[in-house]
Design goal:
This protein has helices spanning about 15-30, 40, 45-55, 65-70, 90-95, 105-115, 140-150, 175-180, 195-200, 330-340, 340-345; strands at about 10-15, 30-35, 60, 80, 100-105, 120-125, 155-160, 190, 210, 235-245, 265-270, 285-290, 295, 305-310, 320-325, 355-360. With about 375 residues, it is α/β, with parallel strands linked by helices. Strands 8-7-6-5-4-3-2-9 form an 8-stranded parallel β-sheet. The protein has a 6-stranded antiparallel β-barrel with strand order 10-11-14-13-12-15. It is elongated and about 75 Å long. About 45% of the residues are buried. Bound molecules: pyridoxal-5'-phosphate. Pyridoxal-5'-phosphate (PLP) binds near residues 210, 211 and 220.
């Protein structure tokens, strides 16, 4: 028997990832899918996620080193760098590895015109349609397209924008109209939709869609659950109880006097803390599943441990399985209690956590 270490794992369910990719396919009716895998596939592990995302027509990310790793692992489909390039040296490497780029500023157009590349590039010209982050202005589009089209560095041109409000009540009608007008008469394929765009504007999301969050089984909409969108959570953060104690009424639990028992309380201690990526901004009452049942956080999250009220789960004992988020407890809910967005929790799981990959179903813990 190997020595058992701390039983905290991030379980990555590849069957769920495949299912969610199929959901994208159903929503977009024939558009090509570039699965967004920036930030190490939203914290799930790029190479871990790859077998399930192989069906997508390409992958989009920020990091050139990760894109090169993918090429070295013989990934042959389209790779797109979402923030483009930062220097002439990078441009050479990008061209050598057949990576597509976003061009979001006229200086980058000039840099491309001055470059001498052995192999010309697929370029996505990004247009600012109101998010005011990256992108050329709508009225620059025609001129820059003409220049890019004439440049020997450019093999193929695409038009792109990013929607900053597709998940809000206001929606993305206004930016979509700006984009349509900026692109009028330009005969290039278009890439528009992120997850919220795919789900809400499937028919106008463009020829090449760029979903991220929904692939990982998380709802982009504040008022709609992933389950109601038929998405399955991919990451389940699981641990165990490492201690159980009975605490009398009127005592504090954990650091800094933020939780005082109001009845005789059974407290369970979970091996997981903020050093593992669990948010310490959650409040008393945040849900956690212990032995499959809902318990609530009692006291401040510490670096390595979380204390929960398990008074109403009499069968819970040392070694009982704990689910921090995932399969039966949406990460959206924990993010809500923590005052952050689910993206941040998924990306924030730290190197201390062991990752395991499963194709289907659960890791079986013994009660
Ligand atoms: C992150 C990102 C996406 C994916 O967004 P989700 O909301 O995760 O679907 C798409 N396009 C660009 C440019 C991005 O940066």
């Amino acid at each position: 028997m190997p020595t058992l270490s701390r039983q905290l794992v991030a379980q990555i369910n590849l069957a769920a990832l495949r299912h969610n990719l199929d959901r994208v396919r159903q929503c977009v009716q024939g558009a090509q899918i570039m699965a967004v895998v920036k930030a190490n596939a939203y914290g799930h592990g790029l190479l871990r996620a790859l077998p399930a995302l192989g069906e997508a027509e390409g992958l989009a990310l920020m990091e050139l080193d990760a894109a090169i790793t993918l090429r070295e692992r013989h990934y042959t489909r389209r790779l797109l760098l979402l923030e483009g390039f930062f220097s002439q040296e990078e441009l050479q490497e990008i061209s050598q590895h057949r990576i597509a780029i976003v061009v979001h500023h006229r200086d980058q157009v000039a840099a491309l015109e001055q470059s001498e590349l052995k192999r010309s590039l697929e370029v996505f010209l990004k247009i600012n349609t109101g998010m005011n982050r990256l992108g050329v202005e709508p009225d620059e589009t025609a001129e820059l397209c003409e220049r890019l089209n004439a440049s020997s560095a450019v093999a193929a041109l695409r038009l792109m924008t990013h929607l900053g409000q597709a998940e809000t009540k206001a929606g993305a009608e206004a930016p979509l109209a700006i984009f349509r007008e900026a692109c009028q008469g330009l005969p290039y394929p278009r890439s528009i939709a992120n997850s919220a765009g795919v789900l809400r504007y499937g028919d106008v999301g463009g020829d090449i869609v760029r979903p991220g969050l929904m692939l990982y089984g998380v709802s982009p909409f504040p008022n709609q659950t992933a389950a109601s969108l038929n998405l399955q959570p991919v990451m389940s953060l699981r641990s165990e109880l490492i201690a159980v104690r009975d605490v009398p009424e009127g005592e504090y639990v954990g650091y800094s006097d933020i939780y005082k028992t109001t009845r005789p309380t059974r407290i369970g201690v979970i091996a997981c803390g903020y050093a593992d990526g669990y948010p310490m901004t959650v409040r008393n009452g945040t849900p956690v599943r212990v032995a499959g049942k809902l318990a609530t956080i009692a006291g401040r999250v510490s670096m390595d441990m979380i204390t929960v009220d398990i008074t109403d789960i009499p069968e819970a004992r040392v070694g009982s399985p704990v689910l921090l988020w995932g399969e039966d407890l949406p990460v959206e809910e924990v993010a809500h209690w923590a005052g952050v967005i689910p993206y941040q929790l998924l990306c924030g799981v730290t190197a201390r956590v062991r990752f395991v990959t499963t194709e289907v179903g659960r890791v079986d813990f013994e009660l």
